[in-house]
Amino acid sequence: MSLTILNVGFSLATVSQSTPGGAEQILRCIDEALVEAGHRSIVVAPAGSSCRGALLATRAVESQLDEEKHTVACEEQRRAIQRALSEFPIDLIHMHGIDFHRYLPTTEIPVLVTLHLPLSWYPREIFLAGPHPFLLVCVSRSQARSCPAGTRIEAVIENGVDVPQTCLGLKKENYVAALGRICPEKGFHLALDAANNAGLPLVLAGNVFGYAAHQQYWKQEIEPRLKPPHRFLGAVGPRKKRDLLAHACCLVVSSLVEETSCLVAMEAMACGTPVVALRRGALAEIVHEGRTGILVNSREQLADAILAARRLSPMTCWEHARTHFSASRMTTRYVHLYRHLIQQRVSTVLQRGAEWVA
User: Fold this and answer.
1) How far apart are the first and last CA of the chain?
2) From residue 221, how far is each of 64, 182, 218, 298 by CA, in Å?
3) What is the pTM of this model?
4) 217-226 residue pLDDT tens
5) Where are the domains of the chain?
6) Which of 120, 152, 128, 124 is nearest to 138 (CA)?
7) Which of 2, 68, 193, 248 is deepest in the core (most CB within 10 A)?
8) CATH of segment(s) 176-323
9) In angstroms, rounded to a whole number, what is the distance separating the alpha carbons of residues 311 and 289?
10) pLDDT per residue over 301-333, tens digit each?
11) CB under 8 Å to 97, separation ≥6 — which residues?
12) Which residue, 101, 97, 93, 134, is CA-closest to 23?
């Protein structure tokens, strides 16, 4: 049975191959997998997004972002969702944005919400016991364990990434990589300090978005540390990212928050590159300690871990990623969940009809 799925992204983030945000990368993977499997995929995302299915574009994201612009963006999301519901026979709505509650539609169609970010960033009321017009999915076991008591989690579906057919990272160069959104919680200033202490150059790639806190973090913590031999590449596309990760001696993940997942760590291992990281949240589930990376408990231990990681096998990293982190594994589990929830709704409707006739 062919499905029609409406995927709704974060109101302030475009969806494309070069998107740095984890939620947007997962949305793109699901959209692509749905189309390739013969299903209909509808995506609500800002103008500038690209997808395999039908894009219902909202207003383009502005360079400087504040709460007023966010409110306008949420209203645009709400209108686009209503348009999708009126124009297409939607079977299920899958929401990915941290602000999903601000444009949640009133509908009997199943609504699935994947919690891509730390749970403390969401309104507490979404976890409270009681009937909700949506169902929750976590992206790691550690995230699910951290939910408030009584929270109903429909499923735990670990994220996935595209894994190359062969190991690309057999020939390493003398640098350390760090990638992601340039913002305070990602702690890239710690990665730069650790690379300095290890005596290695760090290559940093990612976006500096127009939030005031992100801009301030860049100016105060990153710019002063970005002196040769360290380099900043800005946003990179898929091919450049893969090349950067494959040839790095390791990836450093210096996040200051409990990571719910870590796509860039999965991508590094998929290229044959070990991961050095602070022991935060789901990283303990992703990194096979001593084989695909090294986890440390403090920033002071990062430099030694960087040097030690160079002894780890690229082939072991790649094989681990191929077994555990493939995008196809993730998308297959989502489609199975879609079918289950849609069938549940059909059964409920039929039961109500039978009761009404009786």
Assistant:
1) 30
2) 20, 10, 6, 19
3) 0.90
4) 999 999 999 9
5) 4-160+326-357, 176-323
6) 152
7) 248
8) 3.40.50.2000
9) 13
10) 999 999 999 999 999 999 999 999 999 999 999
11) 8, 9, 10, 11, 13, 23, 77
12) 97
Calpha distance 48→58 (Å, rounded): 9
Look up tokens 């002063």; give the residue.
Answer: 224
- Residue 12: both structure tokens together: 């302030």
Say which amino acid occupies 270.
Answer: A
Q: Which residue is listed with tokens 């990376």? A: 293
d(CA 159, CA 255): 18
For 283-304, give one letter per residue: b (16+ CB within 10 A) or e.
bbbbbbeeebbbbbeebebbbe
CA distance 25 to 326: 13
Residue 282 in tokens = 């789901």
Phi, psi of 218 (to 5 degrees): -60, -45
CA distance 249 to 295: 16
**The CATH fold of domain 4-160+326-357:** Rossmann fold (3.40.50)
